[in-house]
Amino acid sequence: MTLVPRSPIPVLRELPDHAQLVLVDGADVLLHNEQIYWPAAFLKQQLDPGSMAVSIEAACDAAVYALPCPADSLVGMRFSRCPARQLLQSSLPGVFDQVGKALQLTHWLISHRYCGFCGQPLLAHPAERALQCPQCQHRVFPRISPCVIVLVRRDRHILLARHAGRGSATFSCLAGFMEVGETPEQTICREVKEETAIEVNNIRYVRSQSWPFPSQLMLGFHADHAGGEIRVDGDEILEARWFEADSLPAALPPPFSVAGQLIALFLQSLKV
Questions:
Q1: Which among 176, 162, 40, 25 is positioned nearest to 87, based on CA atoms?
Q2: pLDDT (0 to 100) of residue 2
Q3: Is 267 among the domain residues?
Q4: Is 139 within a domain?
Q5: Hey, which residues does 161 pair with through a beta bridge?
Q6: What does the alpha-carbon distance between residue 156 and residue 158 come to, in Å, rounded to a whole number?
Q7: DSSP label at 178?
Q8: 3-state DSSP call for residue 30?
Q9: What is the pLDDT of residue 87?
Q10: Do the Cβ atoms of 175 and 149 come closer than 8 Å?
Q11: Same domain, 98 and 156
Q12: Which ranges of the chain would DSSP assign to H, the alpha helix?
């Protein structure tokens, strides 16, 4: 039996022929016969054998790796490309997890090519999923950025907003990155206040979700309205409104997203 490489970040030539790869070009996944997995035995003959891959997981005899791969390197090969968001929305949970990991790990590889201390090219660590500087030994691990996302409730109403950086017609929950030294609860109070001038209390953790655009860990909460009237700056938040449970907007976050799940759980709680 061919063994899986000891390093979590092998080059293509080191992969066993039975390994499968997810090819990522920016925010797109490159599909092989409309499937997300490419056989390593085929790619070894077509791509640079020194290309660096990174392990997603290794289960039974089907090791799975992610490979950064610009579409123009697939010269002469038949493939199609699919926006990752579209693929994640239509995929089964197991595929969602693997594609999400592939997006995050390939983004990490291509955005950490040089040491931040001495400028030397980074190399794969021989035993950890990490990059290491051969000169100063500085290690770089995959980055995860914690974010909070919160659905604010007021009786049978919820606070939803249209964000400037997303689909302009979609109303969603409020969200933001955690700052240094903050707890998730402190971030929620700050973000909601900054974005809508609303104050909240009774903050309750609900669930989390890895969100690979490019490397967020979304921490989902419900919170109650504690005071204030809605006021937005029209820059980051275009519009924010209270919506009654029976009159929600047509354009809502997809059900697979943590935002969609927070809204669904609110609606379920009204039926108890």
A1: 25
A2: 46
A3: yes
A4: no
A5: 172, 240
A6: 7
A7: P
A8: strand
A9: 85
A10: yes
A11: no
A12: 40-46, 84-90, 93-111, 184-196, 258-271
Give the C-alpha separation, 230 to 171, whole Å.
15
Summarised one tens digit per residue, pLDDT across range 111-120 is: 999 999 999 9
What is the value of pTM for the model shown?
A: 0.89
Domain annotation covers residue 2: no
- pLDDT < 50 stretches in the chain: 1-4, 59-61
Determine the pLDDT at residue 3. Answer: 47
Which domain range does residue 154 map to? 145-271
d(CA 134, CA 121): 8
Cα distances (Å, whole numbers) of residue 119 to 37, 105, 112, 115: 34, 21, 11, 5
SS3 215: coil
Distance CA(98)–CA(22), nearest Å, equals 8
214, 205, 188: which is closest to 258 by C-alpha? 205
Are the C-beta atoms of 68 and 110 separated by less than 8 Å?
yes
Number of domains in the chain: 2
pLDDT tens for each residue of 61-84: 458 999 999 999 998 899 999 999
